[in-house]
């Protein structure tokens, strides 16, 4: 893994997300109420909605287009819906958010 | 057919008629008098009506169709003047009627303490629907009420008014609340619970005088000189049998009309039952023995033998969240022993009173799950010496059964009473289930279990679950979402009543099951909090749907649409030039909307703060086309141009829009003002529409042209623009304060039971209208700000752009 610094934790609102642009598409970096960060492809498995604009609750996000709910931990659609969104390794160190860039180069984010 | 006259349509006589028509259909020609202008309803449920948890329609037990089907001649709203037992004739205000048998069921009268000032306007009892409605009408937030009497009724009245936002003080003569049903310790816990919800409770307080002003109540003065200001004073100190008619007719009357065990008075053709009677020196106020009497009276009328025996009764308080149960006798005595259990942290108190080997009384507070089991032991005079050591822990601890409520229900014997009001035992319910009644409603309909006070509904459901196993589907009380048991209405009320001013406070106090809600409840709670506490609560963008967080409408491809406000649908060449320039610069698709605005589609998120800055520079603000809030005011050109126009519809539309813009509402809110009944602005399908006519303005509300098509209903007709604006603002504020999130006004109006209540609040009651307007303006002082101007800044431009761009590194 090769983690790169993408910004400060406080640049992401708690229970919110910011987008990181990668060559392979946008990645949504979420910050939950307990200050954990999670990175997922910013495309809903349903109709491609921007998950980064969804409401974050617990370790889950609801897509703003049609209310599909995804686990931030696994990228799995919850409830009756089926589908998965790609996840990426992300962590917080000393208030900085780190994202695994090696993964970006080898896997498709979109 | 034999002629039966019944005086009084209360719970006892209603039940008696049901039994009578069951055992002797077609035998009786019944005339039913009622002083109240309506038929039988479930009086016990007035408290939930007062608190808003039920509507009056839900508590009606017999409707017009029922009376008609059974050929009952209804003389409602007519008082009986006299009874002539010699001629066997009853005379009402509108004439006489002969009887073969007469049933007196006149119930009771509230006892009014003979205090000076008790005739003042605003001094009421708590007895019937009229009293309930008086309290509901008086219940504006900030209005003050004093309740004299800390018994069952007084506390239910106090809690109901408090839930409706009033400042309530309870004045109780005795040292602790509900002293007839509770011991001092449970009384203390109850008092603490009431104080916690903002009700002031004064015990050992003696009322001296009711003070008035201009014939209206102003305050209650206690004998220590304390003055308690109030707009309404409710006396709930007790009832006494309404036995005057019986006395005048020459029947034997003690404290009530004296009856034998067959419910016959001293005249064999005259029966009496309910709260108006006295049987072996005893009076009756709770519903269970009344229903027993109803059964006996019906049998006596049918010539069958039955006899009434008073039974033990238990009491529960119908105040949501105050769990309290008492049964039997719990006075201390030389031969009596107590078993007491306390858990102060959970607010639990249990006390059992034993005499010899028998349980004779139980008081439970905070955890009443075992109440019916204790009650059964009391009634059956069970020898409890074997289980004495674990008795207080309830049935789950007897014989090593697991502490599972379902197991406890499963373990109940067939003759265990489930519904105290209607005397329905478990066996009867199980039989009904086996005969096909598989829902709570079906059980209610077939056995009457839980059909009166409803407290045993949970227990009935458990019996259903135990009997049906997996086939039982628990009914949903339609909670807000999976995070809570509470429906929207409860949450709104509790936010106000418990003064919950932050999202964590709501989730903690109302027992949210998730750590921070979900996409369904968070936007609703955010709205409720900002609407109820505009000064204290801070809007939470992360609890808003994307459109309201980003102040633009998200489109299917993740881009946004941007729509500047055009007041009343008016624009200028300069504004159009600025819009055209912005559209070219950001490569927007341009669409004219149905609300007389121009929509710019296809804007990227990171461009939003830039296009806003451009439009702001040309003097335009957000059109809020994305919000659950004030959207557009559509107008026609009115008297400015139109040869048919009757008023300045454009000018009025602009005034309304300038006053209302920026306000958040439970759902989107659209208006229109049209200059004449030709209705070019389509005002009759808006949430609020104004139709100008020669003589003034017609205001209609509750229209919609979305998934449902609704025509507005007339709210008011007024003469001046000022009144249109005032009524509109008051209507919007009432909607903001009382509707469920995501209910458009037409849905809200339907849930309030039609426009009557709303019209009274915003049209008829000028003082209330002024209060609503003041609260709206207070909220606008915080929220009427252009979100574009606030966000067209470098900080926002940064925050709305990607956090990082790894495309270059990835390309290396």
UniProtKB/TrEMBL annotation, chain A:
InterPro entries: Rieske-like_NirD, Rieske_2Fe-2S, Rieske_2Fe-2S_sf
Pfam families: Rieske (PF00355)
Annotated ranges, domain Rieske: 4-99
SUPFAM superfamilies hit by this protein: ISP domain
Gene Ontology biological process terms in this record: nitrate assimilation
Keyword NAD set for record: no
GO molecular function, one term: metal ion binding
Alphabetic keyword roster: 2Fe-2S, Iron, Iron-sulfur, Metal-binding, Nitrate assimilation, Oxidoreductase
Matches recorded under PANTHER family: 3-PHENYLPROPIONATE_CINNAMIC ACID DIOXYGENASE FERREDOXIN SUBUNIT (PTHR21496:SF23), FERREDOXIN-RELATED (PTHR21496)
Annotated protein name in UniProt: Assimilatory nitrite reductase (NAD(P)H) small subunit
Organism this protein belongs to: Rhodobacter maris
Top-level taxonomy: Bacteria, Pseudomonadati, Pseudomonadota, Alphaproteobacteria, Rhodobacterales
UniProtKB/TrEMBL annotation, chain B:
Cofactor: siroheme; [2Fe-2S] cluster; FAD; [4Fe-4S] cluster
Binding site for [4Fe-4S] cluster: 636, 642, 676, 680
Protein name listed in UniProt: Assimilatory nitrite reductase (NAD(P)H) large subunit
Cofactor binding comment, as recorded: Binds 1 siroheme per subunit. Binds 1 [4Fe-4S] cluster per subunit.
Domain called FAD/NAD(P)-binding: residue spans: 3-297
Domain Nitrite/Sulfite reductase ferredoxin-like residue range list: 555-618
Superkingdom to which the source organism belongs: Bacteria
Pfam families: Fer2_BFD (PF04324), NIR_SIR (PF01077), NIR_SIR_ferr (PF03460), Pyr_redox_2 (PF07992), Rubredoxin_C (PF18267)
Magnesium found in the keyword field: no
Domain BFD-like [2Fe-2S]-binding residue range list: 418-465, 480-529
Matches recorded under NCBIfam families: nitri_red_nirB (TIGR02374)
Keywords: 2Fe-2S, 4Fe-4S, FAD, Flavoprotein, Heme, Iron, Iron-sulfur, Metal-binding, Nitrate assimilation, Oxidoreductase
Start and end residues of each Nitrite/sulphite reductase 4Fe-4S domain: 628-767
Gene Ontology terms, MF aspect: 2 iron, 2 sulfur cluster binding; 4 iron, 4 sulfur cluster binding; flavin adenine dinucleotide binding; heme binding; metal ion binding; NADP binding; nitrite reductase activity
Limits of the NADH-rubredoxin oxidoreductase C-terminal domain: 314-380
InterPro entries recorded: BFD-like_2Fe2S-bd_dom, BFD-like_2Fe2S-bd_dom_sf, FAD/NAD-bd_sf, FAD/NAD-binding_dom, FAD/NAD-linked_Rdtase_dimer_sf, NasD-like, NiRdtase/SiRdtase_haem-b_fer, Nit/Sulf_reduc_fer-like_dom_sf
Record-stated family: Belongs to the nitrite and sulfite reductase 4Fe-4S domain family.
GO biological process assignments: nitrate assimilation
Residues the entry annotates as binding siroheme: 680
Pathway(s) of this molecule: Nitrogen metabolism; nitrate reduction (assimilation)
């Amino acid at each position: 893994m090769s983690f790169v610094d993408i910004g400060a934790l406080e640049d992401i609102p708690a229970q919110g997300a910011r987008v990181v642009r990668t060559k392979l598409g946008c990645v949504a970096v979420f910050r939950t109420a307990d200050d954990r960060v999670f990175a997922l492809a910013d495309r809903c498995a349903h109709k491609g909605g921007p998950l980064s604009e969804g409401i974050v609750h617990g370790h889950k996000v609801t897509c703003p287009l049609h209310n599909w709910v995804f686990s931030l931990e696994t990228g799995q659609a919850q409830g009756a819906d089926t589908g998965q969104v790609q996840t990426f390794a992300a962590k917080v160190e000393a208030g900085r958010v780190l994202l695994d860039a090696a993964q970006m180069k080898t896997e498709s984010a979109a | 057919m034999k002629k039966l006259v019944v005086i009084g349509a209360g719970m006892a006589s209603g039940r008696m008629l049901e039994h009578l028509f069951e055992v002797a259909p077609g035998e009786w020609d019944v005339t039913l008098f009622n002083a109240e202008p309506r038929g039988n309803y479930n009086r016990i449920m007035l408290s939930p009506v007062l608190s808003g948890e039920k509507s009056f329609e839900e508590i009606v037990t017999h409707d017009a169709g029922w009376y008609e089907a059974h050929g009952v001649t209804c003389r409602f709203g007519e008082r009986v003047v006299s009874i002539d037992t010699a001629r066997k004739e009853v005379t009402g205000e509108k004439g006489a009627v002969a009887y073969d048998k007469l049933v007196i069921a006149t119930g009771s009268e509230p006892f009014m303490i003979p205090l000076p000032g008790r005739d003042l306007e605003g001094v009421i009892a708590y007895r019937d629907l009229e009293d309930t409605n008086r309290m509901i009408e008086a219940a504006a937030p900030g209005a003050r009420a004093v309740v004299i009497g800390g018994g069952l009724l007084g506390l239910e009245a106090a809690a109901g008014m408090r839930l409706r936002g009033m400042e309530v003080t309870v004045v109780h003569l005795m040292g602790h609340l509900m002293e007839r049903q509770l011991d001092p310790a449970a009384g203390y816990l109850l008092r603490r619970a009431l104080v916690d919800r903002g009700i002031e409770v004064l015990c050992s307080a003696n009322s001296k005088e009711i003070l008035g002003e201009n014939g209206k109540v102003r305050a209650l003065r206690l004998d220590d000189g304390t003055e308690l200001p109030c707009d309404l004073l409710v006396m709930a100190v007790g009832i006494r049998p309404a036995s005057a008619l019986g006395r005048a007719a020459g029947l034997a009357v003690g404290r009530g009309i004296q009856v034998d065990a067959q419910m016959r008075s001293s005249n064999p053709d005259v029966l009496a039952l309910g709260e108006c009677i006295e049987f072996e020196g005893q009076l009756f106020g709770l519903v269970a023995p009344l229903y027993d009497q109803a059964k006996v009276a019906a049998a006596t009328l049918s010539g069958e033998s039955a006899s009434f025996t008073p039974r033990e009764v238990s009491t529960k308080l119908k105040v949501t969240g105050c769990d309290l149960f008492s049964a039997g006798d719990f006075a201390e005595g030389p031969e009596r022993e107590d078993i007491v259990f306390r858990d102060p942290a959970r607010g639990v108190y249990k006390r059992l009173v034993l005499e010899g080997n028998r349980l004779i009384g139980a008081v439970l507070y905070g955890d009443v799950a075992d109440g019916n089991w204790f009650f059964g032991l009391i009634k059956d005079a069970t020898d409890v010496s074997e289980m004495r050591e674990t008795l207080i822990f309830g049935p789950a601890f007897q014989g090593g059964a697991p502490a599972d409520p379902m197991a406890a229900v499963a373990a109940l014997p067939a003759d265990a009473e489930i519904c105290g009001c209607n005397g329905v035992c478990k066996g009867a319910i199980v039989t009904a289930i086996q005969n096909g009644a598989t829902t709570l409603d079906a059980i209610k309909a077939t056995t009457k279990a839980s059909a009166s006070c409803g407290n045993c509904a949970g227990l009935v459901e458990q019996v259903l679950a135990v009997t049906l196993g997996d086939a039982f589907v628990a009914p949903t009380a339609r909670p807000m979402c999976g995070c809570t048991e509470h429906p929207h209405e409860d949450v709104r009320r509790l936010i106000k009543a418990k003064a919950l001013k932050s999202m964590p406070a709501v989730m903690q106090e109302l027992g949210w099951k998730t750590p921070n809600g979900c996409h369904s409840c968070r936007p609703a709670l955010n709205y409720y909090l900002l609407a109820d506490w505009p000064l204290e609560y801070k809007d939470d963008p992360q609890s808003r749907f994307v459109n309201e967080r980003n102040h633009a409408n998200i489109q299917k491809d993740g881009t946004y649409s941007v729509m500047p406000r055009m007041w009343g649908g008016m624009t200028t060449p300069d504004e159009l030039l600025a819009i055209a320039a912005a559209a070219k610069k950001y490569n927007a698709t341009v669409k004219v909307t149905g609300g007389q605005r121009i929509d710019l589609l296809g804007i990227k998120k990171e461009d939003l703060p830039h296009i806003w800055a451009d439009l702001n520079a040309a003097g335009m603000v957000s059109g809020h086309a994305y919000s659950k809030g004030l959207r557009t005011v559509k107008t026609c050109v009115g008297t400015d141009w139109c040869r048919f126009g009757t008023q300045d519809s454009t000018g009025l539309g602009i005034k309304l829009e300038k006053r209302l813009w920026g306000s958040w509402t439970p759902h989107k809110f659209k208006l229109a003002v049209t200059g004449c009944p030709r209705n070019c602005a389509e005002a009759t399908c808006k949430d609020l529409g104004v139709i100008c006519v020669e003589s003034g303005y017609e205001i209609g509300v509750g229209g919609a042209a979305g998934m449902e098509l609704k025509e507005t209903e007339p709210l008011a007709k007024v003469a001046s623009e000022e009144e249109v604006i005032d009524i509109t603002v008051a209507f919007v504020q009432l909607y903001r304060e009382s509707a469920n999130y995501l209910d458009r006004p037409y849905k809200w109006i339907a849930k309030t039971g039609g426009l009557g209540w709303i019209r009274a609040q915003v049209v008829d009651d000028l003082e209330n209208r002024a209060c609503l307007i003041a609260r709206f303006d207070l909220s606008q002082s915080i929220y009427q700000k252009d979100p574009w101007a606030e966000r067209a800044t470098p900080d926002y431009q940064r925050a709305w752009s990607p956090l990082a761009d790894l495309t270059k590194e990835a390309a290396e």
